[in-house]
Amino acid sequence: MTVDAPDDTRTRILRAALDLFAEHGYQRTSLRQIGERLRLTKAAILYHFPAKEHLLAALVEPLLADLEALLDRAGGLPAERARRVVLEGWVDTMLAHRRPLGMLFHDIALITRGDTYHRLMGIAMRANDLIAGPDAGRRERVRAVQAVAACSDPVVFFTDVPDEVLRADMLDGVHRLLDGVPPSGAGAPADGGASRGRRRPGRPRAMSPEQVETARRMHAEGSHSADEIAAALGVSRATVYRHLDAASAQ
Which CATH superfamily is domain 10-50 in? Predict the structure, then answer.
C-alpha cells in the first residue's frame, strides 16, 4: 500500500492489517484485533477477506504487480539497457514498498506456500535472466542473483536511511558487483596487492556517480547542510564540497 486509495471498508481493513502486522507480526495478529481497531465485526472482515491469508496476498499484490510491470517494460529492450532499467527500477520499487517488505521480512515463511511464492519466484527468475543477459555463463548468473539481493535486502535492514540516500548506496553497490568498479579513489596498491582487502582508515575521498547525483539534489533542495549530506553518504565534508564545486563550475 503505497498510494492513497479511496477510503472504503476494504482499504481501511488493509491499512489496519498492515499496521498491526508491522507492530505484532502476522502470526500474532488476529482478525478480531483488526476488527476491533476499525470497530468492525469479524464477520465484516471475512466478508471482504474470507481468510487471513487473503489479507497478506492483497498487501503484497501491489509490490508483485509493480515488479511484473517493470520486467515487462524491460523485456523488449536491448540487453544493456534492459539490465540498467531492471536494476534501477527494482531499487525504486523496493523503496516504494518499504512497509510491506518490512512486514514480510519478519514473517518471511508466510510467502513460502501457495501462489504468492510461485509468482515471486517467477519474478525473481525473470529479473535474474535480464540482469545476466543472453548467453550468460555460471559466474554471470550467480552475480545476477546477488544483484537482485543487493537491490532488495538493504531496504529492510536500513529503515532509518532516507530513500534518496539508500537508493544511491544500493545502486553504487550493485554496479561495483556487476561492473567490477573498484572502490572510489583506490588505485593500484603500492605493496603489490598485499594490502588488498584491508579497509583503509577514514572516509572515502570520492563518491560514485549515484552518490554525486544525490548530494547535488539534496543541496539544491536547500534542506540539508553539507555536514548532513556528508554524514548521510558516509563521506567527508571536503568530498561533498569538491563535487558541489565541480558541479557549479560546469
Answer: Homeodomain-like (1.10.10.60)
